Each structure stands twice: as structure tokens, then as C-alpha cells.
User: Fold these one by one.
Assistant:
Number 1:
Amino acid sequence: TIDPEALRRRAEKALRTARDRTHTLTTCVDEPDLTAQHSPLMSPLVWDLAHIGNQEEQWLLRAVGGRDALRPEIDSIYDAFEHPRAERPTLPLLAPAEARGYVHEVRGRVLDILERIELRGAPLVDAGFAFGMIAQHEQQHDETMLITHQLRRGPAALTAPPPPGAGEGAALPQEVLVPGGPFTMGTSAEPWALDNERPAHHRLVPAFHIDTTPVTNGAYERFIADGGYTERRWWTADGWAYIQEHGLAAPLFWRREGGQWLRRRFGVTEPVPPEEPVVHVSWYEADAYARWAGRRLPTEEEWEKAARHDPESGRSRRYPWGDEDPTPDHANLGQRHLRPAAAGSYPRGASPLGVRQLIGDVWEWTSSDFLPYPGFRAFPYREYSEVFFGPSHKVLRGGSFAVDEVACRGTFRNWDLPVRRQIFSGFRTARDAS
Ligand code: AVJ
Ligand code: FE
């Protein structure tokens, strides 16, 4: 058990870190850019901003703090289930200045509640869960807003230093053998783990090989050059129909010019760097690449075993490197660098078996559908995970350069439709060991 004062400071810091990021993402462009819809796939940035405040109001002010509603009349405008993204620009949204005032006012009251409340007892407040949940929610929308920035046309609004190091990708073995046997998947211990990560349970996973690093742009270019997008046999029926219908022939944001691949990233066009993990590919493309390579995507349980299982102790750990929270030496997280690091970076983030970059850089598609673990209980609301369970969503693991550490761990599960590729999605491949 953690002392209550330390817990309070941790919750406050997580909320503050999220707000700093939100601030950057919503002040680096001017007002018309905040209210515009940059893609029908995304909300106007100013919707995300007030939605962040509204979720915080509903959970921390009302549910945890027992306070009266501050702005009950706007709940419906910022309910993601009532209004699909394409429709949000037509809603009577709070203007940027109003939205800023609103989130600021909510936060002030929330910090007051945090100082007064006992962080144990009911599951919603125990170990500061609701505060952690809301910090994660804000960070998830910060990633969503970064996706909107990536889709936005025009000159760069955001800049960041490149990730450290050239990467040892070429010098590392291509794949790692993960021995067969039981392992503990999911968690019942991590205090801020969300409902879909729970509970911890045993799984028997046969031996498999998994790529040491995520698949790089260079490798992906070989797939393209070898006719990857024109040969029907690499694709599932749905995937083939999808790339035909939309005329897809490369990852999103790539363009062929003068015999080379260029890509646009946050307003800057540059040659595609061959050593970087490929990003902005759909599940269909990841799956087709793996088949072309004579391999397959890892299952979700294989991914988690590679990331968490310590063969020496037999225990599942929080991260590939152990139980300590991530530092900038372990992983590329938190929008510190606005791009993935070269394959083979972050030696200190390696798993005991030597698998690299499982955490950070790019979300990794797995072959698995998003399903509940045995013993799953929706908490605290069905609309976070439960309503998405089923065969239409595929699981992504490990987090991207755009995710903050509060919303990224060995057990964390993300999910999306197999067509999605505006997200910061890449992949690695695997094969059976027999
Ligand atoms: C877990 C990333 C799929 O953005 O749709 C944000 C997170 N849920 N607000 C999403 C979420 C409610 C969710 N993902
Ligand atoms: Fe949300």
C-alpha cells in the first residue's frame, strides 16, 4: 500500500501532465484551426478539449466529489455515443475561449476534491482510481488530437527533437524464441489498470518466434516493390476489397515522387526513413505484409507474454524491462519526439529475451479480436470497453510515441477497426516455433 499523500501527489501530477499536453495541442494553432474539422474521421480540436473537461466533471466532480453539476446542459453535446465524429462540427460547441474556461474551472474544483477525499474504500476512489482513469482519458484524447494535427493541412504547428540514437536494428537477431509454457496475462494488482486489462489469469502459450523490433519502413518498401498491394494472395477477402475500393498502395501519408517514397509528417515532407518502424498502416495491411513475409501477426497473448514474462522468475512484470516506471531511457513515449525511433533503439527497454521497443514508438496490431478476459466486469462504465467487445475490433498493444506513460503498460489494451490507419499503428510479425 502507498501512503495517501504520495498517492495524491501522483494523481495531481498525472492530471497536470495531461493538462500541459492538452494545452500545447490546443494553443499551437489559431482559432479557425481549433473549430475546423480537419478530417471527417476526427472531431474539431475544440470538441476534444471540452469533452475532456466534461468527462472530468462527470466522474471527478459529480461521481467522486458528489458536487452539483457545473454545466449539465452540455453533457449531451460531448457524449461520444450520441454524436459520431463526422457530425460534431454542426453541434453548438463551446467556443475555444469558453472551452478553456470550462476545463480550467472543472480542474480547479477537482484539485480541491483531491485534497479532501480519502483515497481508499469504494472501488472508484480506491488508490485514486478515478483520478488515474481521468488522467488516462485526457491523455488518450491528447493522442487523438495529435492524430488530428497529423491530418491537418498546412505548415507545421508542432515540433520536437528527434529520438536519440541511430538504432542497432541491423545488428540484432531478426527474431527471438519465446519458450512455450504458462504465463499470467492481465492484472489484478495495477491500481490504475482499466477494466479490460483485468483480472490476472493464466494462459498456456505454445513456443513462438517474434520479431526483435517492429517492422521497418525499409522492409515495408520491399513488400510494396514486390507487388504486395497488387497480389490478391497476400490479402484476406475483406482486406483486398478494402484496398481495391480505396485504391490503397502504400501507408497513409506516403507519396511516390522522383523514384522515391516521401511522407508528410506534422506539416513537413521528407524521404521515408528506412530504419524507422512503419506507421499508419491498417490491420489489413499488417496482416498482408506478414503473409507475404511467410509469417503472421502475433496473437495478443503472445505479444503480452513477450512483453511481460520473465523466464527466470516465471512472473509477469509491468513492463519488458521490469517493474519500474518508464524513463526516457526505456521507451519513446509522451509525444517527447514526434516520431518513432529507429528499429533497435532503447537497449534499456529490452525484454529479458531481447525483444525491443514493445513499449512506445508505434501501436502494434495483433491478430486478436478485442474480447473480455475470463472474469471481466465492466467498470466504471460499459461504454469504455464492453460495448466494443467482439469480432469487429482488433487489439493493438504497446503504445506509440504519442501515448503518455500513464496510459501505457504491459497490460494496456487498445483496439480499433481493421481499416483504421490514421492512428499511430505499426506491427511486428511472429511464427510458430514447431
Ligand atoms: C481506447 C483509444 C479506443 O479513443 O476511442 C476515449 C479511448 N474512450 N474516450 C478511444 C477513449 C473514451 C478509446 N480508445
Ligand atoms: Fe473520450
Note: The CA atoms of residues 248 and 271 lie 19 Å apart.
Number 2:
Amino acid sequence: PSDPPMVFHWFPFIGSTVIYGMDPPKFFRENRAKYGDVFTFVLLGKKTTVAVGPAGNDFILNGKLKDVNAEEIYSVLTTPVFGRDVVYDCPNAKLMEQKKFMKIALTTEAFKTYVPIISHEVTSYYKRDSAFKGKSGIVDIPKKMAEITIFTASHALQGSLIRSKFDESLADLYHDLDMGFTSINFVLHWAPLPWNRKRDHAQRTVAKIYIDTIKERRALGDADKELDILKHLMKSEYKDGTPVPDHEIAHMMIALLMAGQHSSSSTSSWIMLHLAQYPQVVEDLYKEQIKVLGADLPPLQYEDLAKLPLHQAIVKETLRINAPIHSIMRKVKQPMPVPGTKYVIPTSHVLLSAPGVSGSDPAYFPNPEKWDPYRWLPGSPNAPLMVRSEEEEEKVDYGYGIVSKGAASPYLPFGAGRHRCIGEHFANLQLQTIIAETVRLFKLSNVDGSNNIVGTDYASLFSRPLEPAKIRWERRD
Ligand code: HEM
């Protein structure tokens, strides 16, 4: 047995931190070419072993609880932001129960109520926002998509009471909470710095808003008709019969909004930027709606989304190229032999999974660098190879419901295993609705008419388009 090869570096502690941080996907690609699918680099003094490709994804993401641990890595960042006793500030078994509670609100029945809510938020945003006044204009799209994401997600998932607070106090407080997620806080999370003081104040204030809302809604009793997550959490009990305490509900609500906000907001921005790259695709989307839903384009319903394959393909393809989570980390708890190799990963290492590497590998995606949503539709020469459909996937139950194992899959933008995303279906619904409503109203293009697109900003834990990222919109007649 031996250690995996080590990426060459000049300085101890710093190791490859800077070069990794500038462009993680490039770093993975280049070192994979040099060292193979499994290699180690030094990240802030920690030996970090990367395992890429479908087998590497499976090795880390479906690692056993006795072998790999997420909370020991993530907790320093997430606990001050979310609050105590939830997600990574509790044993994994408790997180599995909490994921089950949070997932219960993400049912088809609830989704049917979410689509009209999201449609309404999107269209009224475009109506009132000053950047969309007139017949055409130029807009810095990530700022707008961040707002649309928070309005749609908070209204659908958290109810109208919480949504109304986003017009005033909550937006700024969430911004302060966000500052806790800068990568530098992996080292400085404890420090009494201005941004950490703001983070702690915001956490207490936001938690109190949720706790007060819980009390208000309890007082409403049967008059409270909303089918959102808050309501479900208020009714949930742990296996031992304890109802979920109010402070845990509040902290889970913060966690849910934070988890969804960054990834969905970044993805919707990338979607609009790719559509502006290829204005013809916007017209194809518009035509798809006319063909399937009728020329009068009636109000969008949940059932319509499944009938719009190009809309679905836009989300899939954007997440293939621009997955917002480029690095998934685990602490190694037992020496772990890597199947099919002579390597054993010691407990002093951290494991890093980067499913984006196989997502951009020509072995699975012909012409991988091309954003080509049509590759997900039948008959495309760029069709994905060896990506299994939902039905073909092996299923597992880690305690939060039956999910696809995603074992050995080259395409895993939502992760796999016990920490897999529970927000996938909600994110798809939200993003497809935003696309559908946007192309009903606007044509999009690049300001200079080119096919260019901005680069990626990797400074925060979630990658996103570099700003400013301006595109041109033109109202349909
Ligand atoms: C976990 C991606 C939207 C809630 C994850 C993970 C990924 C991911 C890769 C696994 C992290 C790990 O293994 O360490 C995404 C993407 C999204 C998205 C690409 C949108 C495009 C959402 C939304 C919600 C959400 C909308 C909430 C409604 C969660 C939760 C976890 C998770 C609760 C579980 C964390 C754990 O078990 O450790 N997501 N997500 N996500 N996501 Fe998402």
C-alpha cells in the first residue's frame, strides 16, 4: 500500500492553495493529466486527496459513515450561519432525520402550489424592476437573478409571511449571514472580525424572526392554509417522539434558504448568460411552449414542466458546465483503500470529490466544452455516454427517503449518497419556471452580439459568474 502521488509545490502549508483557489476545475484537469484519477495536494496545510471520474465520485460520496465525515469539515463555516443543533452541528443520524422532515415539504402536492407562486414572483419582478422598463435594455443579470431566486424560494418554501419580510429587513440580514461563507472563514471563522460580528448578529435576528413567525402561525391554527416547509417542520417529530424544537426549525429554515439560494441563483444567472450567447435557443424555447401549451400561453402549471424537454435540458446542460459546487469535502476517519489501486488514504487526509471533472470529460460528453442543451434530447451527436436514467439508477435509503445511489455516475451536480441534495426537484421546478416566464416576455442576446461568456468567480464556496455580467433584453411584441 502507498500514498497517492503528491502535487508538486514550493511552500509548506500554502501548498497548492492559491493555484487551486484561482480555478479549481483547471487545477483538477491538469493534475489528473499528470498524476491520474487519484492525487493529493496541500490545501491550507491539509493533505487533500482528490479522487475523480465515476469511480472516484462513488468512492467518496458513497463512502461509509465509519470512513468519511462531512460535519467535521463543514461545521466551522455552517454552524455560525445556520445556528446550533441542525445539519452539521449534530450527529449524522439526526441530519438524516432532519433531511427527511425537510423533504416532506417537497412533494408533488406542494410543487403544484409552488409553480403559480414562482410564476407570479417572476412576472411581477420584471414588471416593477427599473432595469426592465421600456422596450429593450442592458442588465447586469446576476444581481437580478439573485433577487428573483430569493423572492421565489422564500415565497414558495417559507410562506408569504416570510416572503413579505424580504422586501425590507430580511434581505440585508441574509446578506450579512452570507459573509460567513467566504472561503477565508475556513481559517478565520472564530475571529472577532467585523464580518463575523455581523454574521452572528444576523443569525440571532433571523432565527428570532422565524421563531416569532412559528408562534404567529401556531396561533392561527386551522386558518393557516399554506403548504410550506415551515408548516411541515412545525408538525414533525423525531423517531423518539420529540417534536422538533422551535430553535431547530428556525435554524433549518436558514439552512434551507442558504443551501438553495447560492446554487439556484448562480445557475439561473448562468442560464441567462448562455441564452444570451445563443439567441436562437431562446426562440426554440418560446416555440416549444407555443407548440405544447398553445399560442395563447396560458398560466404555467406544474404538469406543464414535464412536457417541456428543451426547458429541462437547459437546466441539465448548465449544471453540467457550471455546477455551483465544485469541491465536496470529507474527513477520513479510517484508512481507506482505493478500489483497483495500491493506494490507501490515511486518516490525516481530507477527501475531495469533484463530480464536475467527469461532467466535462469527453469520454462521457462529446465536445464537453460546448454548452449544447440539445445533447440531452434524442438523436444528438453530442448525446451523453454512460449517464444512466433515473429509472436505471440503483436506489438506496440513508434514512431520509429512497434516493438514487448515483454510484459511478459521471453526472452528479446534486452529489450522491447520504449527503445528496434534497432540493434537486425544487431547484428544477424553480429554474424551469424562471426560464419559461423569461422567454415569454423577452428575447435575449449579448451586448456586442458575440457568442462570448464571462469567466467564473471561485472566490466564494459556491462558484458563480464574474461580475459585471451584462446582457441585452428586448421585449416581445
Ligand atoms: C446537498 C447541489 C439546490 C438543499 C447538496 C449537495 C450538492 C448540492 C452537490 C451535496 C453536498 C455534499 O455532499 O457535501 C445543489 C445544486 C442546487 C441545489 C446544484 C441547485 C441548482 C438546493 C435547494 C435546496 C438544497 C433549492 C433546498 C430546498 C440541500 C440540502 C443538502 C444539499 C439540505 C444536504 C446536505 C447534507 O446532507 O450534507 N446540494 N443544490 N439544495 N442541498 Fe442542494
Note: The first strand starts at residue 38 and ends at 43.
